[in-house]
Amino acid sequence: MTDEGKVLFADSVGARVPSRARAQVHSVFLRACNIETESGELVTLLAAGSGNLPHGIRCASPIAPLCARLRQGQTAILEGATLRVPTADFVVDFSRAAVWSGTVAAALPGVRGAEPQGALRELWETLREHAPDQGVAPALFSSGSRRSMLGRALVARLAQTLPILARATEAGDAGAVVSTLGALVGLGAGLTPAGDDLIVGYLAALWSRSHREPGIAALLRALVVPVGQLSLHTNAISRQMLLDALRGHFAERLTEVVRCVCGGGNVAGASMRALEIGHSSGADVLCGLLFGYSPTLTAGSVLACATENYSGDRHAARPAAIAF
Amino acid sequence: MSATLVKIVPREYRDSVSLMQLSAMLGKLPGVEQASAAMATENNLALLAEAGLRVDAKGAGASDLLIVVQGEKSALPAAMEEAMKSLTRQTEDNGAEARVALRPRSIQMALKTTPEANMALISTPGDYAAAEAMKALRLGLNVMLFSNNVSEEEELLLKRFARDADLIVMGPDCGTAIINGTPLAFANVVKRGPVGVVGASGTGLQQVTVLVDRLGSGISQAIGTGGRDLHRDIGAISMLKGLKDLAADPATQVIVLISKPPAPEVAERVLAEAAQAGKPVVVNFLGTDPKQVGRKGVHAVKTLEDAARAAVAIVKGEKPRDSYAEAPSAPSGLPRFANTQRYVRGLYSGGTFCYEATLLLGELLGDVYSNTPTHGTTELADIWQSRQHTLIDLGDDVFTRGRPHPMIDYRLRTERIAKEAEDPETAVILLDVVLGYGSHMDPSSELVPAINRARTTASAQGRVIVFVGQICGTAADPQDFARQTRALADAGMLFAESNAQAVRLAAGIASTLAPSAAQRLRKS
Q: What ipTM is given for this predicted complex?
């Protein structure tokens, strides 16, 4: 579409995009914009080349010229496989777009065995090597030498919370899980705060595990309502991501990593693509995924880093590798 | 007394990178101790309190942006004003970017708009880089592959394809080139002239091209090959192609080849071709004995500086010397060091500078430790803790995970300067300052405060620290070479003309502090 054009075609549409809704423009970025429906759902219009989202409509072309015309609060209408913003004079036509499903279940056909331990090690190594020194990753890997006071507070909070969450998860204690997730919602820097990203990754791992672990499946069912309520404590963009995750729907880049972990693909390659999301969001989601697959081991690493940070003894506690 | 200023910006959604940049920018403003730009969620407000930033954010909600600055009371309003300006600027920039014409999204598209192009510069994540490079080669383009994380197998495949098509692949992990006078990636603005350089080392290329410029000559082409080109399996395919092209280039009178120690059989192949080039070739294979390398038509030298000086001498019709090094000596007027002070601590942003320094300092003083040790030096057991004479390559992967390279982001280095200043054994801190495109636009603004803080720390403990450095840059570089030099000289830094000279100067100073070092220095 050019500046003068009025119709933009989408090449894929997320399975959770409502077919009909009145909405308004919520937030505008260079490669994406969010439309908030009257019922509070957030639909994201994505530029070509972006990873799909459960509530996303991905265009077949760049959308920067379009985004330049959008303003918060403009009315938008979803109906008849189109998204219209009348005052911006444009229509997105997704009538011919492929429907994309972001469920990890769909990405794991027939998987019954345990996740390959080598794949988790590869994920761990990729994160250790490439995750930024902000967000959740420093709690798992960093020496802590360069962290700000706020960063240190975040790591301290994670060091308190994740071991409890690990125990609660393995025990299937939904009440304790909800309580600890409450300390993570909306926590940390970023448009989607680091704590929210971590929870999304954690839920993706639980959904992946739920295929073969009835206890985890029961835990997930028990989390839907209370964690849905917790999501009111973060911003609308994060909230939509959490609500989708509670129902087993995730961003394409994350489902790709899950598919590789469970199906023997290139975990490092998929993880690197996921790491491109946001500044530290991709890394935070992957840390959550790693935690969800191996809560006890990952929490052990967090504790080891915390011990190092408090004692200053880098050799005593640094986790060079986890024995997945 | 520290004060806090808070601003809530309702329903302000910025992407995470913008928020991180805003926080970092505010944290660097004068008088600001710490700053945060985050969504105003309940947990973030609690977290700020845990971090010592108690903020009154009544009425703020999870969809609002919370900006907090803490520091000197008088500095905070200006900082907050700057934050708001920055948010406005970002909006305008986004709008402007959206309005510009669509950029090509593929090499083919770019070639349609610029059909005369004969080279593609590829800088994508490593996973995609080899495929993009192959696309470019198939379209008949030479390739500069800035990306790293390309496997050696892929590199070989690309280079063989390029060789068969009479093209060159510069890279992967090629950070420096000057092609037809245009600096690419991390490169300096140098005069054009008769010296052509092919190098498997980024800062090595920068050092030689800068020194050639300073010596009054100029560069015809500076061709990077990527650091693995002279490995056994790759076989110097790109260096041989560069050598062949420069040999055929009428604008090139002298060719300089630079590399860390190549595989022996590869070195022989390169040297045999060099001897047949029909032009004088100066070779600097760092860490190898020039006597083993030199032969008819090939003048071998030990340091990057010697390579530049020999090349310019040849251009001037002079006989190049085997070495231009002068014996290390301590400058006069040195301050009085404390009894505990013995050692040189080198904090490098350029990998080849560190490599060369490790070779030279190991030879001059001994007892040298490094995270990238060379023959005769020892690997540092804990990279965060210096030991005796220590030289650190801060651009090594272990330091750059998730962070910009230290030639761009000086934080890691300034923090390490502070740490070295705390060590009672530190006598000399040795630095490289790399100017040119790609590098930090105002390095003295980072280093001068760090030097001053280090001096204050040492002084409080009855010590003095001497800073020695070299600026790898030219007067035409965008950072204003004269201003950078002045600022660092005013901060007390002792300058050397080259990396090798800086190392010798540091060694000369250290030799005054330990009799054994002085003895060794005399022998060397």
A: 0.84
